[in-house]
Amino acid sequence: MDFELRQAREKLEREQRERMQRAKAKAERERRGKAEAARRQEALEASHRERRLDAARAQEEADQKMEEVMQLGKGVSFSHMFEALRYDGPGDKIKLPPSSFKELSDEGALDKGPMYFRLSKVRDTVPGATMEQDTEEATCSGVLEFTAREGSAELPLHVWNNLFRSDTPDVPLIEVKYVSLPKGTYAKLKPEGAGFSDLPNHRAVLETALRNHATLSENDIVVVNYGLLQYKLKVLELKPASSVSVLETDVEVDIEGSDSVLDNEENQHVLAPLAIGKVESSVVEEGKFRYYKFSVEESVSEKVASGRVNIEVKIDTDASGGDTDIYVSRHPLVFPTQHRHEWSSHEMGSKVLILKPRDSNLVSGVYSIGVYGFKGTSKYQLSVAIKDVNGQRIGEHASASGSVDADSVLCSNCKRHIASRSAHLHEAYCMRHNVACPHDGCGVVLRKEEAADHVHCNKCGRAFQQREMEKHMKVFHEPLQCPCGVVLEKEDMVQHQSSTCPLRLIVCRFCGDTVHAGGEPVDARDRLRNMCEHESICGSRTAPCDSCGRSVMLKEMDIHLIAVHQKS
To answer: Which InterPro entries does the entry link to (predicted)?
Structure first.
């Protein structure tokens, strides 16, 4: 009996312990569940709170950005991200999509005059992170038209090169903001290489290049083209702001000297100064040029024009296997070449070139000398001198010292008048030792041992020594291709590039700039007035007449003054 009671008691105690353990476990589970629910609620509230703070910060940044955009745009809010595309065009005017035109029109930007934009490069700093604006690579521009495809902006080379200077990403993204720029009053630029200051009227050349620009920004690189040459200038300083408008304003331009050293500019077009009467020594490699410049004063030009003195360019070369040619031109042709020059000399070895200006009124000024390495590496000494003619002009033969003797006969071999008493003796000696060149129009008398070295070009008929014929054929008769596509021989190429080549440089009679001439004008009247294509277009601009105030085309102004105002 006691045993059964004890078992019943133990069973009851065991069941009570198990119920207590289950109750404790249930309470613990409920406590942990409540704690987990509280933690989750707290985390959720913290997440919502962080999101609200992020949204507030984003809204604040957006408001601040909008305020900045409004301030930059003087009340016009336009800021978009575009994919950058490149197109070949001058200047700094970009192309935007048509939707931008509608948005700008709705904002009233069209009523505020020329539109300007600030372009900045956008980069992705961390994969998956938000895009950030690259403040180091930014520039300003105008707008050309609204024809780009949606989501993209087309940039000319000037803007593209200033934005993507180091590398171009696979998908270049830029941020375009509408801004209001002040009119520029001062600009300081610095050439990145030597030679720009050698250009005649280089400020006018720079002004012509800036006509295609609407803006300038500090640290921009401006490219100036002069014929086939290209110069880069960095914008160092602008006033009154770091980015300015250059439309319809007078800007004071200051051009600093280049840091480049002449000795390190072998691959560039640089004019080294050459004083008249002094000798310059240097070395030129085969196929390369060395350029020099010298000036002729007005007092000397009068003597040259009257024929009392000559301008003599002399080059002495070492007989070490090398050979040089010299080409000379008068500015505005700054850098003479094989087929763009006014004077040249192609003799082998040392040579002297007499400069005879075609127009006696165009003698004074700056001249350029190009020393060309024709063969091998040549050491040379170059000098320019003003020499007296001494009563005999270069190219004229001195008159005979005495009259022809009446008692003389003409040698049938050398065609000289010989005294009749010694005619038979002279003719026998002359026939034995001398021979006349049989080439039509030559007739020069040579020693028989020298006759084999005397040859004529089968194309132009000029006479040379045998060793000079190879150079003559290469220089004068090897076909040359002009940048405009025409293929001609040397002399025809010189004539072509000085008179008919559309890429030749001229000084426009209307704008005064050095520009490409272009082809023939469409208007027959302009062709009769010896105008080129550029002058025909440039002269079509109108200007008010000083006498009556009427707007008259520049190329018709002289006719207007004669026909209307009877002014000669």
So the answer is: TRAFD1-XIAF1_Znf, Ufd1-like, Ufd1-like_Nn, UFD1_N1, UFD1_N2, Znf_RING/FYVE/PHD
